[in-house]
Amino acid sequence: MTDSAMTDSPGTAVEEGDTIGPVVHRPDHVMMFQYSAILWNPHRIHYDADYARDVAGHPDVVVPGPMQGTFLEQLLTGWAQASELLELRYRNRASAYVGQELTAQGKVVEVNSAEGTARCEVWVSNAEGRTTTIGEGLVRL
Q1: Per the confidence metrics, is the pTM higher than 0.85?
Q2: Would residue 47 count as lying in a domain?
Q3: Which CATH number is 92's domain given?
């Protein structure tokens, strides 16, 4: 699913304000169908372009919200390669569509040296700069 390489892993010197990513994704029709099948999500807006446009009023197939959550999970686990993702919370704020360039990125907002953790804000945005999903993750370093 990932189109671009991850930035450096956190190593030992993680600081507040450090950036994570960006990682670019470009979901296609096959990916949308497969993801919907994995989730047992039969809603046609996620795999049937004619239905999405003509019945539901979308410009194209809608990227499932959980897929954008998966992009955020991959962002954090890719950044913290040998580490552990302890928590991830996210909210979908706007629709994203098949073929759009979606960029997952984030920043470290808090480092707890005593616990060896970093709290990170993460988000997905489209090529127009509109944020489609926002979230927060906790990573053990």
Answers
A1: yes
A2: no
A3: 3.10.129.10
